[in-house]
Design goal:
The protein is an all-alpha fold. The protein has 2 domains: 2-65, lambda repressor-like DNA-binding domains (434 Repressor (Amino-terminal Domain), Orthogonal Bundle); 71-107. The chain is built from 6 helices and no strands.
Length: 107
């Protein structure tokens, strides 16, 4: 989290934006933003999106630094997981059907 906080602070300072100014303009707590930048608090995705948009940062990289998966990717992965589970279940059904058919043929 310290690495993330450093990246956020560097980006904010590059754009010469004060912490209180950012907090006021984005309707956030300056204390909370400070804690995030110091690595003492976990940044919610909404705050990372504020930094990404405001300071032209890559949200995927910020999420990686935060140790999290972006919401859109998480949805895709969950959807993929469900599709994989359905495919496995279909394969099991097909294998069972094939075994039954093989038994019929051999009898």
């Amino acid at each position: 989290m310290v690495q993330l906080g450093n990246a956020l602070r560097r980006a904010r300072m590059k754009y010469v934006t004060g912490l209180r100014e950012l907090a006021r303009e984005e309707d956030l707590s300056a204390e909370f933003l400070s804690a995030i930048e110091l690595g003492k608090a976990k940044a919610p995705e909404s705050v990372l999106k504020v930094y990404a948009k405001r300071f032209r940062l890559d949200i995927t990289e910020l999420m990686r630094l935060a140790g999290r998966i972006p919401t859109d990717l998480k949805k895709h992965l969950l959807k993929s997981k469900k599709n994989m589970e359905r495919a496995r279940e279909n394969m099991r059904r097909n294998q069972s059907r094939q075994r039954r058919e093989m038994k019929k043929v051999s009898n």
